[in-house]
Design goal:
The complex is a heterodimer of chains A (81) and B (264). Chain A is an alpha+beta fold and 81 residues long. Chain A contains two helices and five strands. The radius of gyration of chain B is 19 Å and the shape is globular. In chain B, helix 1 crosses helix 10. In chain B, helix 4 links the parallel strand 4 and strand 5. The chains are: A alpha+beta (81), B alpha/beta (264).
Chain lengths: 81, 264
């Protein structure tokens, strides 16, 4: 599962960053390293970008980037809601 | 030629950042994550009223000011807030090029004490690049409000740099910062930050790369941190090398034509 698929209000752990080069560096610098907890907080009206809580800071990310972040969801019970 | 090649070289580099090098003031750079109070610290130090605001990206270019401490004048440069020096966004390039090539005498990193985990990434990136670093733990009032404490002694030990708690809004801790800056400039304190060591494979590559890079940039051999440069090379960061090539050209032109400088 990838971060762009995480429903608003749900938590996940980062598993792998599938980007490379500058994009990878950028995502790592924003604190998205493996085992980091991420919360999907909000979505813009069109659904993209979304706001994510990452290590104490709210950060807006586009799905072109979040679709490269492999995650493990933490609240399984909300899946498919 | 009256100037030694070393002093004129660093001045050429500094002048390319619009720094006035005639007065020979020590240069203090303010770096830090977005929204950690860099501009507030800047204003408290300089007495200026640079616009401060609670939103990220406010200081996109650099602001410059001065202050006096014990009758010595210091130039302060407020850099844009960044999470990193390595991702090549405009703000990051400004901050990184400045620390890398203008070689501030002291780099003051302003951090948000309530969110240290995020801030330490930049601290470590900067200590990897330069030794004269002070960490300013800002928003200490918020730490108290949120009922947690910070192991400052532990930070000092692990990072190997001075760590100064401040509440910049209330001018608290600013004197201590100024004292540390003076002590560093006067060589009363020598700072040796704890350096990150990489895997043997990477360290071996660094050792091999350094002499090759020194040969490539022989004109800049006194100004660049070649271990850091080797790491950038291994990471595949081309932009930094484009910048260095440009600086190298400038330096060669200026050093070969000191008499006609400014006449054309």
């Amino acid at each position: 599962m990838f971060l762009n698929e995480l429903k608003t209000g749900n938590k996940a752990l980062v598993k792998k960053i599938k980007a490379s080069g500058e994009k990878r560096r950028r995502l790592l610098d924003l604190g998205l390293i493996p085992e980091t907890e991420v919360v999907s907080k909000r979505k813009s009206p069109s659904g993209d970008p979304g706001a994510f809580l990452i290590r104490g800071t709210m950060i807006a990310l586009r799905s072109e980037d979040t679709s490269l972040i492999e995650i493990k969801p933490l609240n399984k019970y909300t899946e498919g809601r | 030629m009256g100037l030694t090649s070393q002093s004129s070289g660093i001045n050429v580099l500094r002048e390319s950042f619009n720094l006035n090098t005639e007065k020979k003031n020590p240069i203090i750079a303010l770096a830090g994550n977005p929204n950690t109070g860099k501009s507030t610290v800047f204003n408290e130090l300089t007495g200026l009223k640079q616009h401060t605001g609670n939103w990220p990206g406010k200081t996109v270019t650099r602001a410059q000011g001065y202050y006096l401490y014990h009758n010595n004048k210091y130039t302060v440069v407020d850099l844009p807030g960044t999470y990193s020096l390595l991702s090549n966004s405009t703000e990051e390039k400004i901050s990184r090029d400045f620390i890398c090539f203008a070689k501030p005498d002291v780099t003051l990193i302003v951090t948000d004490a309530t969110n240290l985990e995020r801030n330490l990434n930049l601290v470590i990136q900067i200590t990897e690049l330069t030794d004269n670093v002070i960490m300013c733990l800002n928003f200490m009032d918020e730490v108290k409000k949120k009922n947690f404490s910070i192991d400052i002694k532990g930070l000092i030990k692990d990072l190997g740099i001075p760590v100064v708690p401040t509440i910049a809004r209330e001018d608290k801790g600013i004197n201590e910062l100024e004292q540390y800056i003076e002590d560093i400039i006067n060589n009363n304190i020598i700072i040796k930050p704890e350096k990150i060591s990489y895997s043997k494979k990477i360290e071996d590559r660094i050792t091999k790369l350094i002499p090759a890079l020194k040969k490539q940039y022989v004109e800049l051999v006194n100004y660049l941190n070649f271990r850091w440069l080797a790491l950038r090379y291994l990471e595949g960061d081309n932009k930094i090398f484009e910048t260095i090539d440009k600086l190298k050209q400038n330096l060669i032109i200026q050093n070969n034509n000191p008499d006609v400088k400014g006449e054309l």
